[in-house]
Queue: 3 jobs
Job 1
Amino acid sequence: MSDPVTTFKVSYPVSPSAGRLALLTMDNGHDHTKPTTLGVDALASLERALDEVAAQSDVKGLLLTGKPFVFAAGADLNQFADVSPEDARYGVSAGHDAFRRLASLEVPTLAAINGATLGGGLELALHCDYRTLSETAGPIAFPEVFLSILPGWGGTQLAPRLLGSRAALQLIIHNALSNNRMIQAREAFDLGLADRLLAPVDFLEQSLALLERLITGEETITRPAPDERHLDEALTEARKVADDRTHGATPAPYRAIDLVEHAARGGDLEEGRQGEIDAMAELVPARQAQASIYAFNLVQSRVRKQPWKPDAEPKRLQRIGVVGAGLMGSQLGALWLQRYQVPLVMKDLDQEVLARSQSTIEGELDKRVQRGRLDAAKAEWLKSVVTYTVDDADLAGCDLVIEAVVERMDVKKRVFADLERVLAPDAVLATNTSSLSVAEMAADLQHPERVLGLHFFNPVSAMPLLEVVRPPHVSDGTMATGFAAAKTLRKSGVQVADAPGFVVNRILMRFMGACGDAANRGNAFADIDDAIKGLGLPMGPFELLGLVGLEVGAHVLRVMHEGYPDRFPLDANFQMLAETGLPGVYDWDRGRVPYDEIRERWQVLEGAEPLTPDQIRTQALEAVADEARHMLDEGVVADARDIDTCMILGAGWPFFNGGICKHLDQIGLSEKLFGEPLVGPHDRAAG
């Protein structure tokens, strides 16, 4: 089936007071699950609709709105893929031409923002004279800079003129670079994006009534001129955010800031529009934007289709258990309870640990109530259906139990053996292990077919990736249950084979090993981190170690060494880090300065020469490329797209790099090392 095409449909309601009005509705013929986008055909439809309206002299005003729950979700990104600079310029210019037509109508225009409004959809609304917002409208955002482009249909010019530079930069730069943060109606209204915030029950009627009053002069709307006394400060803050989040690895945020500055300093509007067109003609075909489009399709389309999910019926989960009520287990318990809303059993050996777990889980429910995301009565009921116990017998009747105990094979095997004695034969057993063999855990069980890995990332509530680990003897029904759980838990489940480190930890440890080699050669930790952040990564390897924990890092390295000793040497310096008991490499109380103990104990190779930043980056990328090739050859994942999805969602790899495999292909390293790209034209996971 072809993608839905957005059309602009015109009707002509008649107002007793204001006369004949034009009601212009954007619609792609589908429900809200297929949001309205603005491609070349949609822009042509807008031009035709405006021609029709302009030709009728008795039309006194125009109201623009969207189909139920959706205003417009912006440009059709699929039309940007593999585009030439000339075609990019044509598409952006076409948008400007159509939107200018709307802005130049001789009658008052009002955008009734009734739902999701993103990118080009928000720019379209800004071309109207007035705007109303439904209280339930959202999400609302300029996501372009997140995708390594910029608002190219007037957004960088109209937003600062309406809102002021600080609010415009918040939307265009700060929010976009904060993992594409989006806002809802109240925040958008408070920023000044709309003139009225209206109840959803009669939103369209009230919006039409406002337009009528504006036409008749019964009501007027005036807006104060933006206060730009702190423009220089706002621009400096925005550029610092761009440096901190991208480290200069993509030009998009800097071009966007320059264009906002042009508008905020009173620059000519048409010059600003031309600046957007010129910038987009360069940015859209560039490596970063093309990688972002690829990454967007991975995480917004491909992963949601769950191409690995077997054709089997998932088990219905009506009672869930978590064994191990520490920090990770408590986070898991809170998530499963909130999403499934069924009885939960938290089991641990220590009553004090259980007490802390109860405090954590109930605290998370209370936070949701305070934020208006959960009814107070429902929260109290959810608290009442949780059992905190030291007795395995209380887990009887659970349809799924996930363990989150210490990362030791003997402990995990003992937990599973104890569970098998109290659970029904068809109950699903899951492990949250980050690197250990799931098959070995299940080897002594009577029913190994019901065991799978569900590797969550910390913090559980925030990290979107779920590695769904498929051991050799697992049943299709068990795997289907895992993928159904991912969807219910609102996680992006990616199937991985039962191999040491799975995907994310395996790639990161190989990456870390190459960076550790640079430290062994005498490069300073901070210099290595800075070199790696030059790839656009949010943090360097030694900064990341502090977040993961030195002991955890050393443990994962030992597991990887046991599986692949030739590629994961047991570096004595890394083992030393775990022995220190320190929270990380850096003593942040003194700045980004290594702890004295680490600096004194780190052994530099005799006669070794430090590497240049380019050499550090190249060495790290070559190591990762080699490991990705091994993973594909071994069948750890079905396709390189799986590796990229995991690295984007589980390790924060930038969209503008497209994960890691796409980046290696784009810079020519895959071709150099293997004679072919890692990401092939055919998605092998899709069959």
Job 2
Amino acid sequence: MILRPKYFILLVSILTSLHLSAKDYYVSKDGNNDNSGTKDAPFKTIQKAANVMSSGDTCFIMEGVYREQVTVKNNNVTFQNYDGAHVTVSGADLITGWTAYKDGIYQADFDGAETEYSMLFAEGKHEQMARWPDNETSEMMELQNPKTGYARCNNKVGGGPTRDVTFFDDRLNSFPVNHWEGGIFRQAGPSIRNARMGIVASSNGTDLKVTPITDLWLTADGGNKPGSGNGFGFILHLNALDREGEWFEQDDKIYYMPRDGQDPNDLEIEAKNRRWAFVIRNQNNVTITGINIKAAALELKNASNCNVTKCSVKYLFPFLVRKGFGASYTELGGIFISGNNNTFKDCYVGHTWGNAFSIQDGNRNTVENCLIEDIGWIGLFTASVQNRGFETQIIRNTFGSNGRFHIRSDKKIDILNNDLFDCMKMGQDAGSIQITNGGRANYGKTFDMEGAQFAYNKIHDSSTIDWDGNKQFVLAFYLEGCSNYTVHHNLIYNIKTDIVPDGTFAYLGPRYTSVVNAHYYNNTIDNIDFYMRVWNRTEEAATFGNGSLTNVRFWNNLVDGTANDSNLGRPNLLMDISVMNEMKFNRAEVNGLFRNATRNNYQLKAGAAAIDQGRIIPGFSDDFEGAAPDLGCYEFGQPIWTAGSTTTEESFDKVITDPTLSIIDNEKKKLTFNIFPNPAKDQIFSTFGDTKTTVQIFSLTGKELVNITNYTANAPINLQNFSAGLYIIRVSNKTKTATANFIKN
């Protein structure tokens, strides 16, 4: 169509007027909501700007912490930090009016949060909810570390309204009868999927009677193994508040024991009070960039074409209780997405009891170049990405520690160029990437993945925990009963378990269904227990029919020769898998195949036996050097593909321009100390230390890396995990503090 001149002029006029009508609004902590919102007369709250913004407008936010939930009111608007300022939108509110409670504990009024429980921060540091045994660290998922707040215990199915629990820890005998009555008991294990929770009805030494919250504790829970057995547990209770830095909430009050006998009225103490930092409901084309979100998450409900870039989202969701154990898009918290074409890019997401992303529905939502770690402290079916959207794109992200899954999906999803490691820290029978045709209601139904691709990923270094002398089933790809997908050019290593060797590359099902067109091409797999596994279940075959495998291919893969294959049920469906141009290498061949496998460099060496040994697979291995494609994930002579995010958590921490002064609590009261050696290599020492001394080490961005209480003078401080560079060390006691810089070589 050709526009006539007068119509063209009209169109230009309309577009120009729209552009000229777009406004910039400014928000400052020193502003006033009665202002005009200009740079010289900014608003005080982001919500005030959101209320007056129209399509095309931008809200520039100046440095500071904004304790509010921002509800977006219009389409096509932008919220952005001003000129690189460090902006935080917090779901936590300041707690004031502290009064003495007892034994060094203080109390303040707190009417609760939008979620069932809260989180507490003192001087910006996440503090531990009071529990027995104490969690003396910031690590939330190391069940077998005696300092991280779990103890061995045994539960029984029993009968009646309560269940018997016995802890294997004589320290409990020092507490009076019913000391823990009314508290929350939580146990990880022995079920391979569930985490039991209940209310303590009574306690006597090491023995508890617990009224179950979780449904599957009431009976032997079928496929979850019997409901009794050994695991790891803890008790949440106000009576457990006995250590500096702990807190608890109860009966509209919050309790806290500050460190070093400090008065909490002199500290900045915050408690989580809101679920959302930004709420986007039925709005489109909203952009949020350069914002740090703390103690809250984002809700994108029926929202499309929204972009969240260069943001951090930390401490998303607090402790929670659930009756069931399965995947949830609402109960487990996280960034909630329903809608189409929404993108999260260049973000950091970490530290939560629940999910990181809960994508409930919509089409082609994207998570790209994000670092997602320390997710799923509750265990259960938590995931870094819980997906029910169609054609979701997961691209170039790094997925770190998780209580269970990295990615779990119920729809077609593409997972490309990601680095995934340290999943399954609190469970068994799952894996880094899990898609399944579901439970009994879906037996006999094929999960059609409609051409999904899982490619150019690194999946590595994951195991499971010891349930009463049993470790089993951690996988790179748990694709049960799934059809029409391709897994190609992935690097898999160190997926193993001890006690029961059960680390697996791929599990196919078929779970009473027909698995069709499942293709595994050009993967490199090292240091695993099992290569391919199938389970042709027969116990209900008369109802649902037998499973089958059709056009399932394992081609051009380079595989650890110690890995086994496994078939359960009859007939042996492994015989129906097409295996071609495969090489299983033994340990003696590793040095001749790879450049440096001990350092996880799996590029092929010149002259390696895997070169030119592959098949040409159109669209997957037809771009090759030499006479034929190589086996494995890297083609010799071509640049290697890369996986993982360039985003770091530190990039979102506030830069300290004068670190020597900025982190001093009271610069008028200083102590004298020396550190040596400087530069340091593996250790550093402080010449000052006594029973009230705390030593902290910070990065130049202000991130705390070391916190040692009751430091003894001249005791070594380990630096082996530190990168080379400049660091800040602070030494303090109840009245004095001092800092210095040092260099790690």
Job 3
Amino acid sequence: MSFELNAKLAARREPLPTSAEVDPVTASIIRGGMETICFEAATHLGRAASSAIINQSNERNGSIVDAHGRLAGAAIGTPHLTFVSGLTVRYGLMRKDDYDWGPGDVFLGNDPDCGGGHLPDYNVYAPVYDDAGELIMVQCLQAHQGDTGGKDPGGFTLEATDIFTEGMAFPCLKLVHRGERRRDVFDMVVRNNRFPSFAGDLAAMIGGVQHSVRLLRELVRKWGSDKVKAAINYNIEHTERRVREEVGQWPDGTYEADVFVDHDTIGSAKDIRVHVACTVSGDQLTVDLTGTDDRQHLVGVWNTFANSRGYVMTQVVAAMDPGINKNEGFFNVVDMIIPEGCIAHPPPNRPAALGSFHPACEITEAVCVALSSIVPERSAPQVYKMGMPNAVIGFDERGRMWMDQGVDSRTCDTSAVQGIDGWGSCPVSLGNLLLSQVEDAESRFPVINISREMTRDSEGAGRWRGQPGSLNVKQVLEPTTAMAWMVTSRHPLRGMCGGDDASPYSNRFKVGTPDEHKVELSANETLPVGSVIAYQYGGGGGFESPLLRDPGAVREDVLDEIVSVERARDKYGVVFTGSVEEFDLQVDAAATAARRKELRESKAA
């Protein structure tokens, strides 16, 4: 559990030993089979688990790591989970003799200091051996669990100063030995989790990887171990070659960006900095986080090394041809410098649960801003900028905890890209992660959703505008505890290439009562029956100057109640005749040209 361990875990791995050769078509067929099996694993988990965050929101992903610890394949899922799972497995591989790895085994890892992300992201994985007993690959299923057994329900403790406050950390724990569940271990893990559905969720993860191991063993038997190893090597080398081709087309130079978190969770510091310098040299890319905040007294803004590494890669991947296969080949081209002791690479035992929100999102955002001058057409920030959703927690008459984690319907952080306005309700970073249904949350929990309307004039203005944010108004029907960490008010999501920044977040508790108050920093409060909370989500950032937006598109935005007439004039420089109320709104071309000239001159001055 040290900086030295992180360096070993992240070190480049050699290809698998094999004398076989494989042609591109066969390699693609084998890769397709592996990816399909990953998808089956993730789908199995989504259908078998009970937690809404897994079975509705899909915060899970399947991936395959080869016997050397290289990412060999993945399902379509939550992108950052794809790039984190491998280091947990590498830790297990380093200790496989100590932990007596063998056919039929299933392991659990979530320790941030042993290659993991934050504690709630459980990685359940199983080795795949061929009939001769050779380890070929490892099937992984990683998913966000609703609790971790720490001080506070949900695993998010706002004032945590060490990892032990947040819950149970498992470096490499064997759940199944040679096909037989270790009931004592399984029961111990379940006992240290407040969620009544957790036993089923964990069992679903075990079942998913066991099913996939059977399928992968059939794939190995069909093609032969050497051919499968050759295909894995070929596909990783092909990805590396394609990534080098992409980077080789970028102009050499160093491209820098700064992005800030408003404050840590207890307000001990403001304007917490993430600095990124992306250096292109030939066909090699270096992402350097030197200059990122390293104040040791900060609370709640520590991202794990594995998470930082994964979030960097999530944004780098987005900057390249989406047709490139996602595997270890990307890591072979991208050197990462993440200084020891900064918030992106903390000392051992620092709390890390909230780091997956911030500074993780600022890391991807900074990489996006830095690369936007090289590849503006692919500058889509892979972020979700809420400090954390409003978590509403209570206990039923049998003492079982319930938690509405705030993962249901909303719009937030959905930025524009070149040629396309922000659309949908989720930022692209979430991949196929969905927002669960409001009706489902109301059937599970004693809450009622009063309003989830998009907020007019909350889009980031631009030639292509961001999607508006939404106001989430919710009432609790029982006494509950509500938790929130409010950021992205002073430092909202950045616009790209001259587009305006997104609108800020805000949050109010006990709305409509004499005790109504704005959550300025963080909150962990008891709410009485009937309390109302109102969470304003920020919109998406704009792309390029709003003065370049088609006036006709601005008119449509006004008619759709996305933009007001006043904002159209003041931000986009578009002037109308007529009115919305009379349905005769039209662009005044001459007045618009004059207004835009006035705004450009004012800006230049």
